[in-house]
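Lab manual, section 2.4: Encoding a predicted structure.

Procedure: take the sequence of the chain (148 residues), apply the prediction step described in section 2.3, and record the output as structure tokens. A sample record is shown.
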Amino acid sequence: MEIKELGHVVLYVADLERSRKFYRDILGWREIGGLGAWAVAFSSGRTHHELLLIEVGADAAPIPDGPRVGLYHFGLKVGTTDDELRKAIDQLRAAGVPILGMSDHTVTHSVYIADPDGNEIELYIDVQPEVWREHPEAFIAPIRPLRL
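Recorded output:
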């Protein structure tokens, strides 16, 4: 077997409308349809859907703090330049979304945020894709503070 690409992410959410507004209105995902009152799908246009949100209700167990087994974060590419990343940061700040961290990973410049349920999201740009394509080990370079 060979995995060709990551197809989609499915997240359980406490409040579908709150999460729908976050992913649609703040992150700019294109909503492609709902599955009744309990789920909604989004796509960037790359495939039929890349994100599916399923409401489990406010009584569901929250994501525990600290190290845990399971999802740490998922990454969303927001462009190819630092100017695009700066624009994304400005939009996040204008919407009141806290920035959890910013890192220079050599192969990416990354900003970290959390969705309304606490799922961590990395918003990034590729930095010199030819470097990581020709030298995949560049991915494990030391992490440095991101200076934009």
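Check your result against the sample. Strands lie at 9-13, 30-34, 39-43, 51-55, 73-79, 101-104, 108-114, 120-126, 144-145.
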